[in-house]
Amino acid sequence: MGNNQTDWCDFHFEFKASNNQAEYEALLAGMKLAKEVGVRKHTVKSDSKLVTGQVNGDYQAKDPQLAKYREQAASTASSFDKFTLLHVPREKNERADLLAKLANTQRRGQQKTVIHEKLDMPAIERPEILNIRNKKTTWMTPILDYLQRGTTSEDLEKALKIAKEATKYIVLGQQLYRRGFSFPLLRCLEEEDSSYVLKEVHEGACGTHIGGRALASKIARARYYWPTLKKDCMDYVKKCDKCQRFVEGHKAPLENLHHTTLQNGWKQSRSRRSRPKEFDILAEIVSDNGTQFASKGTVEFCEGLKIKQVFMSVEHPQSNAQAEAANKVILRGLRKRLEEAKGRWAEELPQVLWSYHTTPHSTTNETPFRLTFGTEAMIPVKIGEPSPRTALFEPSRNEKELRANLDLIQEAREIAQIKEYVIKARAARRYNQKVIPRKFQTGDLVLKKITMMPNKNKLTPL
């Protein structure tokens, strides 16, 4: 290796090797040793004409085993800056013969080092590195063991409980499904998969940060199941930053009504600055869209006094505020998706509407999409985490099933209409119980109180 040192190495095979295989093993061992000591330009001399010819490309390696040796030798040679393999006759390769006979070949002025190594296996038979994952124990493990192998817990009480619970499940294609009530099969998910489903449905491409109960219902309708589905949905909504910042505040009183006294000079502590002036000019006026308020003369009059006119949205009594209620839900979804970037509401509107159309409504227990097209929509989470609908999909039957759903959808629409009417009648009866009739005659004076926040719009957090 150095200018005044010769390092020799001999190998003992622990396996059966042919002469040609032994020549390749010696070649590969020498190349490996040269790489370890940092050699960049390597010249090898071999007395095997076959090995030299195959590595240099002069001969073709027809034997499968020798072909593997040749490929490995070529791969190792490419790691050197320069590699040369020369053939020398056996009679001129005396050092190798002397080493094989373990003869004393030390010469004057040189030091000799002999390295002895054992080869347990051929160089082409490298041990494979396998990615072995430890089997995790989940809530599905006892049920799968019982259904697939019939094994249960040694505890009799636990074994009976597992056997009873397993009747609600079925295994299809190594995947566990739960027999549902609203749908035939619900795919059972582990903790990692359920986390993805929660995030995608709640705040994904078509999510609008719906509430915990609605989130659980939507996931169940997408045909997924795990034992703590509802609890996980409620906890996820509580931890969601946007849901907490844009939630509507409670309108119920904070505490019971109690008496107050006029002690401590409450009247005297009131600041004089808070008293309204009698002859101030309004800075803003809110009116409806009547011609008397929107006329040219009224507009010029307000502009002359620097009064800002604000017109109320058009009201449609015949709609019974249904459009306004739907808009309220859509605006709530836009607030949570936009945060401070209110100008992008038009870009986010399709995703919010899609979530609205694919979420079951409490009045009908159905999604608007199903009541319109006769079947449930394919939401993105069913693609990312295949549901029974996608995993067991048969294109040949799909067209027939869709047409059958259209024939049967009228019954579902009528049932939904009846449910909606019953809920509205119940809400009207509850509301009417608290009504205190107050009627006004023409000419009666009334005080109208209007409070407006500065720079407030429909997308401002409540």
TrEMBL record:
Gene3D superfamilies: 1.10.340.70, Ribonuclease H-like superfamily/Ribonuclease H. Residues 285-376 form the Integrase catalytic domain. It holds the Pfam family Integrase_H2C2. SUPFAM superfamilies: Ribonuclease H-like. GO terms for biological process: DNA integration. One of its GO terms (molecular function) is RNA-DNA hybrid ribonuclease activity. It comes from the Eukaryota. Residues 1-105 form the RNase H type-1 domain. This is RnhA. It comes from Mucuna pruriens.
